[in-house]
Amino acid sequence: MEKRKSVRPVAFLKKGEDTVVRTQKLTRKKARATERISLTVNGKIHEMEVGTASHQIDPAHTLAHTLRETLGLTGTKVSCDHGACGSCTVLMDGKAVLSCMTLTIECDGKRITTIEGLSDPETGELDPLQQAFVDHTAFQCGFCTPGMIMSAKALLGENPSPTEEEVKEGLSGNFCRCISNYHVVKAVLAASGKGR
Amino acid sequence: MRSFTHINARTLDEAIELLRKYRGRAVLNAGGTDLLSALKGEYLSRYPETVINLKSISGLDYVSEDGGLLRIGALAKLSDIVRSPLVSSGYRVLAEAARSVASPQIRNAATIGGNLCQDIRCWYYRYPRHIGGPVQCARKGSGPCLAVRGDNRYHAIMNSRKCFAVCPSDTAVALAVLDAQVHVSGPEGDRAIAVTDFFGPLANALRSNEIVRKIEVPKVSVSAVQTFLKFTVREPIDFAVVSVASVITREEGVCTDARIALGAVAPGPVRASKAEEMLKGERIDEEMAAQAAEQALAGARPLSKNAYKIEIAKTLVKRAILR
Amino acid sequence: MASPYRFIGKTTPRKDAREIVTGRANFLADRKFPGMLHGKVLRSPHPHALIKSVSRDEVMKLPGVEAVLTWEDVPNWKGGTPRCTRILDRKVRYVGDAVALVAADTEEHAKEALRFIKVEYEVLPAVFDIEEALKPGAPQLYEDFPGNVVTPGVPFFGPKNLKEVVRGDVERGFAEADVITEGTFGYENMPNPIPPEPPGVVALWEAPDSVTLWVSNQASYMDTVILSHIMERKIQPRTIGGPCGGSFGSKYMSWQVQCYAALLSRATRKPVKLVLTKEEHLASFTLRPASRMSAKVGMKKDGTVTAVQGTWLIDTGYYSMTTQSQIAVGCGEVQIMVQCPNWDLKPVIVCTNRNASGIVRGFGGQELKCCLIPLLSLAMEKAGVDPFEFLKKNFVRPGGGYFWRDGIWYNHRGIDHTKAMERGAEVFGWKEKWKGWLKPTAVNGPKRRGIGVGIHGSADIGEDSSEAYVRLHPDGTAMLFSCVTEHGTGQVTNYIRMVAEVLQLPMERISITPPDSLINPYEFGPAGSRGTYAIGAAIIAAAEDARQRLLELIAPRLKAKPQDLDTVDGVVYRKDDPGVKIPWKAMAVDRTITGYGRFDPDYSLVNCMMTFIEVEVDTETGKVALLRVVNATDVGQIIDPPGLENQLNGCLGSAGIDSAIFEEMILDRSAGRMLNANMIDYKWRTFPELPVIENVVMETPFPSHRFHAVGVGEIATSPGPSAVLMAVSNALGVWIHKYPVTPERVLKTLGKTGSGKGGAA
User: Fold this and answer.
1) CATH 3.40.50.880 fits A36-117, yes or no
2) A128-191 sits in which CATH class?
3) ipTM over 0.95
4) What is the pLDDT of residues B44-87, one digit of tens each?
5) Contact across the interface for C666 and B151, Cβ inside 8 Å
6) Mutate to test the interface with B, among C108, C354, C668, C742 (most CBs of B within 10 A)
């Protein structure tokens, strides 16, 4: 592998500081070993190699691609693939993000939760939010539902007792063409306060 | 997406060095919400060989206040700005602008640096390769701006030449009204650019291999009323059709300071300086606000399908002043 | 009153609920097969061109590429009505038309290969406007369609299939009228139904003449029928459906994407998956047809319509698969809405150089009404008629009639919908809010409120045929054989509910076969609100047949006649002595009992939906806010309360009400490109802007099947768009007749903008 110039910072920035970073240039002594990233998905740690072989994570792979194609977690749906519809929403360190607009290679060390990670792995018991979606028939075709549930999960994580307006705001990036939105709002409100 | 190599930059200087080394064949990635769209659509003339990740640089995501200045690291996420008590108490117009961007998921990923540097939304420019595209245009260095004779409903109504796309950034409008400075670093060192000077008709003011480092915002008088109004086709998700940011100070009903910026009408946020001057020293009422709104849009030269933006802009200016 | 039913009308979780909320519902894109290849389509940059040459030498050398197909490589498979559109053609007719197909080991390799296919075109002049396309000398899309006029008629609908509405004497009608209005009205914004899941397929060519396709379609059995025709009946296609991530009609015609994958699999003998990107979905899959109508109506002072005369131009894009069908149904539906004796309404289907129009909820009637109601409104204003009273008065009542799609006259033998309309008006507060034509309901500074009302009804609730089997098992379970896919309506669960009610068997003990054309009988599929009546009737008949056979078999064991027996929870008992009973096991453990049911088309029942709309218009920005929607309908009997509620709420999306507010495809009319083929620039309704929706549902028993129910899901989108225009016009005090009512249009209507280049007026 080609030797790559690298740089090492001599002064680190701390939060809130505005020190200008000055660096000195270094040349790596050794060729880089295969880059690896580690991703915790639904509590399970995945160590993955970066590269272009089929079992590896290509730098161009989105998190949605990795979840669906590499890890087989097809519960995360891709609809618009351009960050506009929310179907691919997952939690990253507890926050809702769009897995279609996230590069997997930039998720090293992150904790990801997908729709598959909400129900109890031992008993299969549904998350109260999932149960509320079942009870309120808060879906029609169901394609947008996993993303919808993940957005709602993030919302309830931050705000366990949201108002109706806050639920709508929390789901403002999620597309439902069948218009199950009304039932979704009811389901999320019903689940609020009961969540973990 | 087509493949590329990927490098996690660990310092700003490393990122600058990498940009220099790759001579235009590398792109920077922060939140990724704009870049990935471009890479997927493959509508740019050149597909990058390398993506340089900036999120791996630690300590550039701060939001702090110091010496009468609000400082925001380029990697601060829009959601952090929205949630920052510092911003929402003293720089409310910025918090509102950041909150108006896209959706919660996007705000959790998008950074303020990225929001300022995002590419234009022109639907000719962004027409995807895979449906018989991409399209060549003035901004891509070949041919005329297709919006001029095409569907220009969302395009510029002032200050454009060659390319009639508007600046899509909402935070830019708030920062313009706050007289903020964009601090950039490059191979030649560091420099500060007023937000209003940061945008141009064909590109922003970044020189080659420069990177936005932080934004500095001077303190706003506590008595000033700060307002951000964004007109969109729909409330969330959409980019502004027109936006207006204002900071207006009144003493006993008389305007002592007025700052107004228009967004999505030009290649960058536009300060309505004459309208601002007009208001100073005056008692603000409906009529005064309407006059200032007329003045703010006096320079507008609409295209075939976007004259309606003038009316909306006037309305927003008026409403912002009267708030 | 207590419900007579144990399952019908009860709220139960959907059968597939757990799969959906856990992400385990296996949608098409989630399917993987060993050795599967990925297909991609190279699309034309020109709206109209001849392919002079295609060079693919470089392509086959690329990693992973296994097949490249162009028009020269493929059989002469053709679709369209009539069948004139080749699967890959030497001619391309819109920006995005298929030029070549590639199969490779990964999606990226397939996509990369597209870059290396070199195509030389001879660019032809293109036409994008309906009327321009009809002019002499206009670019011609097909030799088969001189003047770009697509051959009218749908052979499938029978020898007299409806092509126009011509009856009575319009001249006499106009002579009798108190007011006459005329003009040109359009519904040309081409809203896109965009189901979240894009169209896609996996195809596996197995033998010289057989292909299996895993499809995503609301009507997966019909894929077999359609493909068999397209493949010239030489190939035996088998189609297997699965959860369908929305369709709204559109995926009913997925033959092109299905054929692409089939051809690539034929070339490689490997399974090929081809799923459109959202951009392809928006720019190359089907849109709602665009309509422009020049017409004249006569009306009496009491709101009686005396004559309708006009030309209805329909832009079908580069080809028509179903536009003739939509016209036939639209022509039937317009007569249901306006019981007028004198008609001279002539449709003309025109092809232009943009992507094709196809099936969308509202199927022809929505398109026609969106043009006709604005014209009728002008007459109502002149005659001083309240639109609610007008729509109520003119809608078909029992005994009233209409020519349906087959050209045959039917008399509505169903219920009077007036009660539901009146109840809707009451809930909405129509009387209190209606201030007269072009008068706002309320004014608050620059904000003005207005109301509007629209209506839709269809006899398609009994369209086409369905067949089903119900098989009873000795262990007290049953299986329903019906080729229905769940596409969001909840009907799969409801069919199980119907079987449960007939057999008095808990729903958990009833399963349904996968929607596989190989194992199930004929099924036209859930479309046109036919699911509840047509499919339901076949399934009920199958369950009843199975039950009868069971009782006949068991009768000797219980020393009774079959009619003296009943069954509940898998046990057969004597009605006169319920203690005398025997479990289904008595049929013998090595036996099953299969009942068969069939539904034959019935066009004598009409459903109805009336929609009331309240909007608030900001006259200083032009923004139209949808405040409130009241849908009023009579379904005979509610089968599934939350499912029905969901379907009615669907009035907003899928190219429905919002097609009057912000939904539109934006075509650049010089280059032929769809500019907003992405989900940021194509607008759809978001959570924070949800209006208040109230659904008024009456239950007057219908003479349909044993549960007296009819479907209404499909028609929910249709009454709203014209009602929005009416409401906005009333709010503004000025007519606004263009869809959608964008801020630009509103401000222009108010005279608040110039036409650009020179500043505001």
Assistant:
1) no
2) mainly alpha
3) yes
4) 989 999 999 999 999 999 999 998 899 999 999 999 999 999 99
5) yes
6) C668
